[in-house]
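Q: Got a minute? One more chain.
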Amino acid sequence: MKDNDLFNIDDTQVLTIFDTKYNKRENISKHDLFDGYKTLHGMTFSCDIGFLASILPYFEYAEIILGSERVLGNEIINIFAVEKFTIEMLKPYLTKKEDIVYKRFYDKTLKLFVSQKLSHGKLFICEGDNKSRVICGSSNMTVKGFSGQQNEINFKIDNDEKCIQDFKTLF
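A: Always. Here it is, folded:
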């Protein structure tokens, strides 16, 4: 077997699947999706600074893992290095509304990481007083991904402690 053989697929690999139960379909705003929680743990393949700035006010603390430093917007792609984020270099690119990213990074209520291994998953765990939510699906942490401008498929699971604990093992 050749290492570069595109048609020789290893069928012994397994995929992790989370068994859920469908309840209903609903249309929900970004505000209603994120409002009322204190912490956010997010995993996304890509992220835009505008979207991050728009959701940070909903949370007292947030940790975001980016799937790859190569998928960041052109204006900040050179700012990231694996495991290091030079936030001072980002400051000139921020609008007044986006300045929250800079402030939250420095007051240590926002932590940003780049995955050591390429990660394509999109997972957001929101926790608050006596409530929690898992959001998972195809939406990246971008304005287009969470605005309805693109066809995205996402699901949410509310107030399921076992689900929260299970998904937290992915971080």
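A: The chain has a mean pLDDT of 81.
Q: Perfect, thanks.
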